[in-house]
Amino acid sequence: MRFLSDVTVNLVRHSAADSDVVWAARVSTAGEQSLEAVGQDPERSRGLINYLMRDRHGSPFEHNSMTFFIHAPIMVFREFHRHRVGWSFNEESGRYRELQPDFYVPGRERKLVQEGKPGRYQFVEGDDQQHKLVAEAMELSYRRSYAAYREMLEAGIAREVARAVLPVGLFSSMYATCNARSLMHFLSLRTKDERATVPSFPQREIEMVAEKMEAFWAGLMPLTHAAFNAAGRVSP
């Protein structure tokens, strides 16, 4: 049994570059010759991408693809699946395979205490006793639930039935495929960033996933990423 405080995100496949945005946008004026202009004038490409982002011409940002492998708690995936437009998901199935005992326990840096009313609250640091309580309570619950799961499997109970005792702190794995436009919308809601025009208050665990995805994307499409930040992190 493993108790994990971090998530795993790997970029496993991609067809994504700033040039994808440029040729998709220029087809409106250059037709099929738009491909010939890609890469000839980097500064012109930067200006075009900034214009498209600023004036919210979104469709040119859809002509690319990124597939991520994500290993995170089930509670993260339940939030993730709220994002349906421009996304495809395939998650491991507890019906068809025995689920492995990886469970989430917040690290010491995770803020534990919620203060304020709904819609106007903030999270603050927990003290040593609170962190100790969280770790001990979670680990005890995880050990008991996984032991019950294994007991049912060994008694011949179907995996799809036995899994019902497992908590949302169990890690699952999935492939998630998106384009830059759908990823920008995800990031605008699932990260907290001082450059954002519209503030967001994500749960820390899904923000951990979002931060890792953004780092990969920024490396693939630096001009688009810069334009996204300059436009207040609002998806076009």
Automatic annotation (TrEMBL):
Chain positions recorded as FAD binding sites: S59, R82, H83, R84, E91, N179, A180, R181, H185
Could you give the cofactor binding note from the entry? Binds 4 FAD per tetramer. Each FAD binding site is formed by three monomers.
Question: Which GO molecular function entries does the Swiss-Prot or TrEMBL record give?
Answer: thymidylate synthase (FAD) activity
Report the PROSITE patterns cross-referenced here: THYX
Organism, per UniProt? Sphaerisporangium dianthi
Q: What is its EC number?
A: 2.1.1.148
Q: Which cofactor does it need?
A: FAD
- What's this chain's function? Catalyzes the reductive methylation of 2'-deoxyuridine-5'-monophosphate (dUMP) to 2'-deoxythymidine-5'-monophosphate (dTMP) while utilizing 5,10-methylenetetrahydrofolate (mTHF) as the methyl donor, and NADPH and FADH(2) as the reductant.
Identify which residues the record assigns to the active site.
R190 (involved in ionization of n3 of dump, leading to its activation)
For binding dUMP, which residues are annotated in this chain's numbering?
A: E79, F80, H81, R82, E91, E92, S93, G94, R95, R163, R190
Q: Which family does the record claim for this protein?
A: Belongs to the thymidylate synthase ThyX family.
Tell me which SUPFAM superfamilies the record gives.
Thymidylate synthase-complementing protein Thy1
Fill in the subunit field for this protein: Homotetramer.
Designated name of the protein: Flavin-dependent thymidylate synthase
